[in-house]
Design a protein that fits this description.
Layout lengths: L10 H11 L17 E2 L5 H10 L14 E5 L3 E2 L11 H14 L5 E5 L5 E5 L1 H10 L3 E6 L6 H15 L4 H13 L6 H8 L3 H8 L6 H7 L8 H14 L1 H14 L3 H12 L8 E8 L2 E8 L5 E6 L3 H18 L6
Parallel strand pairs: 3-5, 4-6
Antiparallel strand pairs: 1-2, 2-6, 4-5, 7-8, 8-9
Amino acid sequence: MPGFKKKKISTEQLISAEQAASTAPIVGDPRIVTASPIAVSTTVDPHSLHLASRQASPISAINTYECGRIYDVPLGLIKSNPFNPRVFYPASAVDDMAQSLITSGQNISATGYIDDTGAVVLIEGETRLRGARGAGLSTLRIEIQQRPESDRLLYEKARAANVERRDQTPLDDALKWKDLLSTGLYPSQVALAKALNLNEAHISRTLGLAMLPRRVIDTVIELPDLQTLKMLNALREYWEVAGDDKTIELIIEISKTGMGFRDVDARRQAATKGTVNRTRSLKIPLSFGGGKGELRTFEKDGRIELSLKGLKDEEKKELRSKIIALFEKSKPRANT
């Protein structure tokens, strides 16, 4: 039988496919007879748990799912988290998960809740789900929990689990936060920072990574050692000076030589010599009411530009009043 060839797709296609998958159930192989859900004691040894999923008696109704219990759920009944905090799933990580599930079984349950259609929506566990599909398994072990009270809480709970396992990357945060701000789930960076217990400067620096073009992101996401905020920001600053091709070349060089972020910064400074300087700016996506736009800060001349479109009349008046009030507060008081 001739071998299969992998076909490269663009990051835009990948993101589009992942967004579509997040709102639809993942269907297993129709040739596999899907086992009905089985309740599993949370005190059972993980290895016995893996064997039980293959030997258990079927249960007929999906309404037998109970919060706080663990079930082997058919893949066709599972939906991805629509507010999944992760954006990128490197092929190597999914392949490793598939191999682990085949050789050792699923030792850690995913978590999910029952939606209005009776499907199980993941809170966290997308890598395990993708690994199960890749391994040709028919079920995924999921602990059923209470449905989060809001979309924000669903996102925040999933991200907290990823941060605890150190699965969350700055690039995931950058693109997801940009999306959450543009759709209005969080009205401002201040609200986002408060919800995630992060300082606003961290939010701003991370959002700056969303400026990176897809070609550069495609190259760096497969290199876990480069997934730090300092390294990624150094690469972003280098890209602003050197462009796509040279940044990709530098990323490959870093992966081979083990350069640090300070080395990348030195390369950036060297690249600026003999070139025409251009005014650099940091773009931050913003939303206010029904309007969306950006705040641009320019490093050299201290300039700030705010641009918003789509505001209603009352929203324009409210925003104008707030800006004027801000400047009124900053005026020095006259001596009396």
